[in-house]
Amino acid sequence: MDERAYREQNEKTIRSTQTALRNFRDFLVSKYPTETREIYCIPCQELDIYLASFFVDARQRDGSEYEPNSLANYQCGLERYLKEHHYAYSITRDREFQRSQDALKQKQLELKFKGKGNKPHKSMKLTLADELLLRKRGLLSRFNPEGLLNLVWLNNTKAFGHCTGFHSSTLKWGDVRLLTTETGLECLEWTYQDFSDPNARNRRSTTEFRIYATLHAPQTCPVQDYKEYAQRRPQAMLFEDAPFYLSIKPVVNLAALHWYNCQALGKNKLAKMVKTMCEKGNIPGRKTNFSVYQSCSSLSEAQSNQLVLICNDLRQQAAQSGSSHPGSTNFVITGSFDSSDSA
């Protein structure tokens, strides 16, 4: 576990350094087009001027200003890059870079005065109360195609989203496998490509990457959710290399066996899964996919009982709807889940 955490942290540091370097280079190209040297080849007096200008004038792609912490992170990322190339000075400590250090401090004060740094756009945690409401409103449910898609996505993201190499947009059907342990308990196991292998084809799996069936609560069992989703997929989408998340048919007969197209759900829609379901469910606060990583997966006894009641109610409603309108119960896709947008 320590090795995995270290590897994940190291990857985040590398990405942060690359982002800082890319944004600083882009700034130099736009404001100082004649400057083509690698930044570790630029003398400290000149580099200090460039950095001061960057901290004061740099903007995001949409023209808005950076958060104060973002500028500080960029300074640290550039510091790491220069240190890797044995630059003679520290841009965060040495007085040769006093100008840019002062410019950063002044810019941070200015941004905070404008209200930046309070993280008004920070994602809020997806709470257990939120999940209960989403279940109650059919947006996390086995009884309609949108609710089922949301449900398996949420289960996978909670269980595997923290793992290095797990990406919803590239997840294949064969990456998550239904297994039975030696004790007879069913589980879902995520397998991943081992790119350290020369042929990059071998898959590895460990018991760390598993979701186990909850026999005491079948109504909320993630394995049962997976089985239902498998049953609702077209037969042609059950091979290993098929995309895991499929787009929903524009009009679905809930009594029909298959609810999904032979087409991957678009990346843009996957990126807005939580935002979309929370907006439809009138869940307050800014919710994004990152909200899932902040959430807690354990339920109190009272919450578990409430969840069982909600699921039982949904099952009864689905059964009554199907019996009162046989063959005519349709689910019409609105907004974000129609199959026309595969981008």
From TrEMBL:
Protein name, per record: ZMYM2-like/QRICH1 C-terminal domain-containing protein
Pfam annotation, one family: DUF3504
Record key words, sorted: Isopeptide bond, Phosphoprotein, Ubl conjugation
Signal sequence segment: none
UniProt region (Disordered), positions on chain: 320-343
Annotated ranges, domain ZMYM2-like/QRICH1 C-terminal: 128-277
Originating organism: Cirrhinus molitorella (mud carp)
UniProt xrefs under PANTHER family: SIMILAR TO RIKEN CDNA E130308A19
